[in-house]
Amino acid sequence: MKTCVISIFMMIASLAVYGQTRLAPIIISGYVPDSCLQQTTDSLEIFFHQRYNQRLWHEGKIYPVRIVGNRFSVTIQPSSEISYFQIRKAVSSTRLLKSIESDAFLVNAGDSIFMNFKTPNEVAVSGKGSEKINYQHFAGRLISSWGAITYIKGYKPEHIAYFKKLAADHLSRTMNELDKIRPFLSGSVYHVLRYNTAATISSVYAGRIRSNIILNDFLVGDSAYIELIKSELQVMDLQQRGFAATDSDVINHASAYTSYLADFAMLYSQVSQKKRNPPYASVYSKIINDYSGPLRDKILAHSINRYYGILTGPEFATQALNIVQDPESRELLTEISKAKTSGAPAYDFSFEDVNGSKVSLQDLRGKVVVLEAWFNGCTGCTSLAERMHPVIEHFRDKKNVVFLSLNVDRDKKRFLEGVKSGKYGSKYSKYVYTNGKGWEHPMCLYYKWTSYPKMLIIDKEGRIITASTMDPVNEAKKKELIDLIARNM
Description:
By secondary structure, the chain is of the alpha+beta class. The protein has 16 helices and 17 strands. The chain has helices at 2-21, 34-37, 130-147, 158-180, 187-209, 223-242, 248-253, 255-273, 280-290, 293-307, 314-321, 327-340, 379-394, 412-421, 442-446, 475-487, and strands at 26-31, 44-49, 61-65, 71-76, 82-89, 105-108, 112-119, 122-128, 214-215, 218-219, 350-353, 358-360, 368-374, 401-407, 430-433, 454-458, 464-466. Strands 12-11-15-14-13-16-17 form a 7-stranded mixed β-sheet. The protein has a 4-stranded mixed β-sheet with strand order 4-1-7-8. The chain is globular, with a radius of gyration of 24 Å. The chain starts with a helix and ends with a helix.
């Protein structure tokens, strides 16, 4: 009898746990007319994020979209009440529909979304939860239309007033639309969308008012304009700190908001110190002094990951781990430290070259590997590749150094076109790509790469020398890079 009673209680407990954790599935279905299918040979896929992070948007699960009789249906089992998805082309990774957060749509467990495509970029959405999708699509298109506005030339104070009015208009229009659907939303979802929308508009506004004033490593332009920018940033800073989110759902799920605050801390330091690359200590101090608790932890983790290898390194990741309590942020900082610290084993990669042959880290043992990661169309990547030419030329006759040019496009055609252009490496470089996995290749995920170009230098034993992008922007930096490679040969 005792055993039976224990078994019953165990059954009840397991059912209770199951009831708490098993959420209703998300269904994303739709209709794609022949006119749309005929415009592309690229298939579609759903890119789903259980916990969306704007800086790590490429970390998610891919669900292929199988279209039968012009219809498709994808069922997803979420692990949290709030999650995100993108609908995109499978090979090119082109996202079809505009949204607030990197074209990712917030969705709730139990939503059943039906998408009726008119054109590849125009869709009518219906079904349970469609109000959220339609709002995000509206807001995303409105904000992106601002992005299409040509930059105003010159540095005049009236430009700030112009962009400020535009930002206020966008904020008013989006908030009015959001309030219309508030009866269909839970309180937490409403606030997540509200913070994401306001943060995205603020991000575009901040980018506009500082556009082109940071040249090389210094602020340039009309002094009155720069002083006005400083004043405007101080007002924004005061407002943002005064209305800092305390709601756990906003902190955990409004990634556009936490990413924006991380970027704002950098912009504030740039303008305050009149430097494009201010000491990261000033950015770090601003974040820990202005915010607290889980919000501070999210902002700090976003910032350190974004600027690791550019302005910051393992010392700040270690410092942050002494104060950060949020589990997700601690995990990110720990993974960064583990992957990027000098002396750590490099990711054991295996790539495909232009001829389809495999090139692995094991194949390159005994050689110093200088790896540059790029994608076709990346202007920063072509600039770095051009500055690397003298460095590669210096070692052209050395057999124990290899310059590996890694393309992260999913489409092999884009990879081959980039190689053929000659813009992304040297004739002495060895060209490889991520085997059709793009930015979602395990190595890109391992190093938390969120933008390009990126650089790794690996020693002859397969250990990290540096995960910093050592850009040879001048003679001193070029000599520093050459000496570093030479010391490890």
